[in-house]
Design brief:
Elements lengths: L2 H23 L3 E6 L3 E3 L3 E9 L5 E9 L5 E7 L7 E8 L4 E12 L4 E10 L3 E14 L11 E2 L2 E6 L5 H61 L1
Parallel strand pairs: 1-10, 2-11
Antiparallel strand pairs: 1-3, 3-8, 4-7, 4-9, 5-8, 6-7, 9-11
Length: 228
């Protein structure tokens, strides 16, 4: 390997490091951690709202989580294992699909994957949607309430598909087959029954004609006997 080539590689690595340095220096974020990025209608999705302070000691977190009500129903909200020990405003879901919260940490928190609270949503409609966080503020544990700047608010994209793509075809196919077969059998039975009924009517008519004929013959016989 030539010296020029080695120098070129080192130069590119150095440039990459300096370009990425601001990103690592400002990696503090509030994001969602989920057990799935896609689900079926009727599935439950477990989501954790997580904080990364990027080595900054903080003591207050405030914000609002928003989710589309037409796509999800809230099943539960859990904050018993949160890094926030003091709640000014407990995370409670509103009718418009928002979960607002404000909490504090007496001795501060410094680290990544800090569980703010978790919640479970049930998917109820097919589509692609976004769960987001807004109006967020993170305060430093400096005794002055200084806001931590440059906090990234990362949304969560969820794709919801049909509960069972094959179930609808199966459900539709069964009645279609039955509707094709049953009327034929019923028509055949009806036709046979009609023949039986018609035959019975003919036999009944014949019997009535014979009875009438016998009655007429009896009257003639009785009349002839009286004459004699």
């Amino acid at each position: 390997m030539s010296k020029f080539f080695k120098f070129k590689i080192l130069f590119l690595l150095s440039i990459s490091f300096f370009l990425l340095l601001p990103y690592f220096a400002n990696a503090q974020s509030i994001s969602f951690i989920s057990n799935k990025s896609s689900c079926k209608v009727g599935d439950d999705i477990q989501i954790v709202l997580s904080l990364n302070t990027s080595d900054k000691l903080i003591n207050v977190v405030d914000g609002t989580v928003s989710f589309p009500k037409e796509f999800f129903d809230v099943q539960n909200i859990k904050y018993s294992d949160s890094i926030l020990a003091l709640w000014v405003k407990n995370p409670i879901a509103s009718d418009d699909g928002n979960i607002s919260f404000t909490g504090g940490i007496p001795h501060g928190f410094n680290g990544s994957n800090g569980n703010i609270f978790s919640f479970t949503l049930k998917a109820k409609k097919i589509g692609e949607t976004v769960i987001s966080i807004s109006n967020a503020a993170v305060l430093l544990n400096d005794g002055l309430g200084t806001e931590l700047k440059g906090v990234t608010l990362a949304p969560l994209n969820i794709k919801i598909v049909s509960a069972d793509k094959n179930s609808s075809a199966t459900v539709i196919a069964a009645p279609a087959v039955l509707s094709d077969i049953l009327p034929v059998k019923i028509n055949k039975l009806s036709s046979s029954s009609a023949k039986i009924v018609a035959s019975s009517k003919v036999k009944t008519a014949s019997k009535q004609q014979l009875a009438a004929k016998d009655k007429k013959n009896k009257k003639i016989i009785i009349k002839n006997v009286k004459k004699n």
